Hints:
It contains 19 helices and 26 strands. The structure holds 2-deoxy-2-amino glucitol-6-phosphate.
Amino acid sequence: xxxxxxxxxxxxxxxxxxxxxxxxxxxxxxxxxxxxxxxxxxxxxxxxxxxxxxxxxxxxxxxxxxxxxxxxxxxxxxxxxxxxxxxxxxxxxxxxxxxxxxxxxxxxxxxxxxxxxxxxxxxxxxxxxxxxxxxxxxxxxxxxxxxxxxxxxxxxxxxxxxxxxxxxxxxxxxxxxxxxxxxxxxxxxxxxxxxxxxxxxxxxxxxxxxxxxxxxxxxxxxxxxxxxxxxxxxxxxxxxxxxxxxxxxxxxxxxxxxxxxxxxxxxxxxxxxxxxxxxxxxxxxxxxxxxxxxxxxxxxxxxxxxxxxxxxxxxxxxxxxxxxxxxxxxxxxxxxxxxxxxxxxxxxxxxxxxxxxxxxxxxxxxxxxxxxxxxxxxxxxxxxxxxxxxxxxxxxxxxxxxxxxxxxxxxxxxxxxxxxxxxxxxxxxxxxxxxxxxxxxxxxxxxxxxxxxxxxxxxxxxxxxxxxxxxxxxxxxxxxxxxxxxxxxxxxxxxxxxxxxxxxxxxxxxxxxxxxxxxxxxxxxxxxxxxxxxxxxxxxxxxxxxxxxxxxxxxxxxxxxxxxxxxxxxxxxxxxxxxxxxxxxxxxxxxxxxxxxxxxxxxxxxxx
Length: 608
Ligand code: AGP
């Protein structure tokens, strides 16, 4: 949601801003804009729709200023129009903003009484006027921003340019992400790491309440009261090339095919024949202390919530601890029973999802130990948590999560094995067996990817279907929810995932010869049950696509089959989601939708 870039240094700012905004496109947006100071003038360009529209408007040769700010806007207050696009300006104050100012109507009324008038419908313009109003008294930008923000309720990351001072940029963050990249004779502010990677890997992840100022060579950070604070400088290990398409038609396809590699990375150093599962990240939290956990509470949204759904089956069956799985947006507004013996696990690819952060905060406030499962180093959830288990998926740019999901599952399976060992619920031989199986996992995912040709051919067949039903049982129930979510997100096809046993309690009424059903039937205790469920829908004329091991397909049933490799029954969710990802991708590709940035969606949902 909304992307911010601010640059000050010795390069042409416009190139850095547009390049940065391109790397933030995945966040979702519907208008964009930039402002650069050049020859004592602020030159602003704004445009509705894709960044390409903005780029077309700009003659880079004419713009040589070395300080500027840029923004991609995901409309909240006010429609996606040019007038509502950022940057906004009032007098000296030129500003971009990500977040929501909750008391903006109140502030607007007060400012109107003081003689201010507004051109846009946005809450952001209020911020500009608020700073400008404070400037009348303080004359200096930093204290004016500080005082203005003291009046604001809501979430924000802002970068402010002073039209009268091209040597500084100002920033503040509260509830929305902002990263500071420290270069040689240049500094960059951005909503996320990929916008900065090409210039430096030395970064400061700003914290809530941080405000500050950067010049080309210096940076200063203050807390909300204006007291100077020190922040750790992190060295980011992502490579800039990781955030490029690398010859694939879409980031999503690249990310699907990266799964064997990133699952391998996620496992690296965490499993060994001698020690089983090693998670040093948890040492401090549980090290010498008695393991005093009687309840595990997952909070997450979307795909991450599906990963939690799989983990529930794993942990309950192997560790014997009750597990609750909540949508973070629901959890935060109920009165959950959480105590000191609760271990809360917040799962978030981005680490910036507003609902997940609020839910994790609530659990922590009530005394829970908090673990984050996250892909982004230094992100908000990792700072909130007592310990973080990183997925090592690298930057995920496609809005539809793929490699984030399978690496989350990998980490959650490691956590399950670690817990079962800690609780002495698993025998050494069984653990060794699972560790052996895990070593084969990247190779098995590679084999699952080999289904691509068959999936692509089938996608043509299913392209005009709606709805599409997905059915599964046990750990594969959350996987079918994920398969249906993928199809909705990128192909805009109405798809639903069902626990197969629930069909006859209602959803089977949807089934006829025009409704395709995709069924996951892995080897195991529930195979016979799944076959009965497939019989139920086949008897009502549905064409059934079955995904499973060859010898599991019931004879004479199903319209199509996708064979999967043999694997330990715990690992099959990680394998079986792969053809579902490919299926959604191929249908969307044939339909020609905007796969990496589907309509109405944002990659990182930093507001409620
Ligand atoms: C999945 O394809 C979506 N992008 C979405 O459901 C996502 O998983 C959700 O918004 C949570 O994001 P997070 O993992 O970054 O917290």
